[in-house]
Amino acid sequence: MQSKAFILALAAGLISAVVFASATTGAFLLRIILFLLTPLPIYLTGLGLGPAAAGIAAITATAIVLLIANPLAALVYAISTAAPAVVCTRLALLSREEGDERQWYPIGRVVVAAAIFSAVFAMLALMLMGGDLETLTKLLRTVVESFVKTELAQVPGAPAIGPSEIDSITRSTLSSLPWALGLLSMGTILLNLWLAGRITLASGRLQRPWPDLAEFAMPASAVFVLLIAIALSFVDGIAGLFAGAVAAPFTFAFALVGLAVVHSLTRGSPWRTFILTALYTGLVFLPYIGLLLAVTGLAETVFHYRTAGRPPETPST
Membrane-spanning residues where (predicted)? Predict the structure, then answer.
């Protein structure tokens, strides 16, 4: 590796670690933005300078977090930020020669890797928050009760919430927590991968051609993972929560396939702009549209109606 690339990788790791530390202080909105963009320097390094540089940036950032924080923070950073960035950028740059053409690693399989990392992170977060259903329930009830007494009480006209309502909110929060963690992690990984790809493409440093995202597809094996995870999410106890942590990022991935289907099928249509604008607006205000897109993505993965007469992006097995 050239010395310039090595120095840039070290700098990227330093920037990522500083952003990670900064995400714990300041205004709430600023903290959210910093948290979402913490991995971006490593993704930029991986796509622009290669996997080895991404590995150096990731190791540097993890070491700095260990020094300025503690081993637990370094572990969380490594699993949630560093490792996904290195692996996903490495996979995105994989290719092989087939005849006279170079075949690049399917984007669908990169997204599967992101989903696996997201599930692992969500399960780790659940373990750190308690590790068993009773501890998690007590922790969430304390948080909900504190919010009701300190924040909600200051809102004019806020309804009175008693112990029974707090218990109900706690149960709802507990069941949705692994889904929220999985979706947040998946969204963060894919946002940074896409943003880094666009930046490196604009700079001329992207080491692969930009994929046609309207043809994005998932491997058929991911269908079984999602269906099994959803079925197990109805199991009582921590096992059901862990299954939800797996189901969430894979649902996200299939919703992206559904979006790709809409983009593909509306090509050349005079209604394309209206349809896509309405769809994305609906996603913001009507989250259940995401579930419909996930079902659409599942159907496309099984039946390949979008790609009738031509091979899908990924193999069916």
Answer: 6-30, 42-68, 74-95, 107-129, 177-195, 216-235, 241-262, 274-295
Classify strands 95-98 and 101-104 as parallel, antiparallel or unpaired: antiparallel
pLDDT tens digits for 190-224? 999 999 999 999 999 998 999 988 889 999 999 99
- pLDDT tens digit sequence for 86-112: 999 999 999 988 877 889 999 999 999
Gyration radius of the chain's alpha carbons: 21
Phi, psi of 69 (to 5 degrees): -125, -110
121-160 b/e with 16+ CB inside 10 Å = b? bbbbbbeeeeeebeebbeebbeebbeebeeeeeeeeeeee
Query: Is pTM, for the whole model, over 0.85?
Result: yes
Residue for token pair 């928050």: 129
CB 240 within 8 A of CB 232: yes
Beta bridge partners of residue 95, listed in sequence order: 104
Closest CA to 38 of 22, 53, 59: 22
Cα–Cα separations (whole angstroms), residue 242 to 64, 127, 134, 143, 271: 30, 10, 15, 21, 42
Please state the φ and ψ torsions of residue 104, each to the nearest 5 degrees: -95, 150
Burial tier of 232 (Cβ tally within 10 Å: 0-12, 13-18, 19+): middle
Can you list the positions of beta strands (E) in the chain?
A: 95-98, 101-104
H runs (alpha helix) in 50-98: 51-68, 71-77, 83-92
What H or E segment, with its residue span, contains residue 211? none
Nearest to 61 by CA among 118, 46, 284: 46
pLDDT digits (tens, 9 = 90+) for 260-308: 999 988 888 899 999 999 999 988 888 889 999 999 999 999 988 876 5
Q: Of 165, 260, 274, nearest to 215 (Cα)?
A: 260
Number of alpha carbons in the 13 Å side-chain half-sphere of residue 169: 16
Q: Cα 144–149–152 angle (5° rounding)?
A: 85
26 vs 30: CA distance, rounded Å:
7
Place of tokens 């996603």: 283
Whether the Cβ atoms of residue 219 and residue 69 lie closer than 8 Å to each other: no
